[in-house]
Amino acid sequence: MAGAGFVGRAMASDFDGTLFFGIGGRAHPLRRFLSRDLEAIEAFRAGGGLFGVCTGRPLGTVLADAGSSLSFDFAITSSGACVSDGVGNTLFSREIPDDDVRALLDATRGQTSRPPFIALGSGYLVLGGAGIHGLPKAFLKRLRVVSSVDDALAMAHSGAGTGVQVVSLGFGTQECAARFVAGVGELLGGRVSAFQNLDSVDVVPAGCSKGAGLSVARGRLGLGLVGGIGDSFNDVPLLDEADVAYTFNRAPEVVRECADVLVDDVVGALADLELR
């Protein structure tokens, strides 16, 4: 509950498929953000609430797509491996050790349906260019192709970079992705966590998740009553951590079962939270 020194209400929202619809094309293929969502977010913030994004993406790609359309007060990115304020100042960051990145990519070679995406804070690297041409053009423009794991790791540590936050793997089917998630703990001895998003999987440092990132944001930013909204399997930790959990009527059943309130859009979630 909110107390002295705490923000009265805050909402943490998944990005792709919940708030932003421009890359995957789900639900609204011709739109990026829904204007009614943006209007509701600004009204919520004007009333004293804090709004944040909570996503598997690295921060750089969120800022690029948000542009001038979406303003937010905090960001939980790379599936909880990074937490930052609304202007990108890092509050928390954790990386996968280089040896574990190599071991993961060695173990999954030949099992995936597309090249691995390696997430740094600034954006995605893609290991090898074959198999990526079927992706949406807007997303392809954001990928930087590297030829080897060593090149990727060198780039991750160059400049102000600190390392790899996420390795994203595509498995072609939801069943294959689920089998990988079930076995990843044994694969790397519990040193990483993995979260399924339909037929892809984000591998992050052990202990990181969208829910753990929200817990960090609570403490660092003094969040009071917190709502969380997401649409897919990897949002379950976010929904579990939130005081009030929201998902869509269209979400998979396992996600709906984790929610307190079912809504049709972010507008509905914000309206409900403001009544609490």
Q: Can you give the mean pLDDT?
A: 88
Count of helical regions? 10
Largest sheet, order of strands side by side?
A: 5-4-3-2-1-12-13-14
Say which CATH homologous superfamily of the largest domain is assigned: HAD superfamily/HAD-like
The domain tally reads: 2
The CATH topology of the largest domain is what? Answer: Rossmann fold
CATH class descriptor name of the largest domain: Alpha Beta
Following the backbone from N to C, one meets helices and strands in this order, namely: EHEHEEEHEEHEHEHEEHEHEHEH
Residue fraction in strands = 15-25%
Question: Helical proportion?
Answer: 25-40%
* Quaternary class: single chain
**How many beta strands in the DSSP annotation?**
14
CATH structural architecture of the largest domain: 3-Layer(aba) Sandwich
N-to-C CA distance: 11 Å
Fold topology:
Blueprint: E1 7-13, H1 35-46, E2 50-54, H2 59-66, E3 74-77, E4 82-85, E5 90-93, H3 98-108, E6 117-119, E7 124-127, H4 137-140, E8 143-146, H5 149-156, E9 166-170, H6 174-187, E10 192-197, E11 200-205, H7 210-221, E12 223-229, H8 236-241, E13 244-248, H9 253-256, E14 261-263, H10 266-274
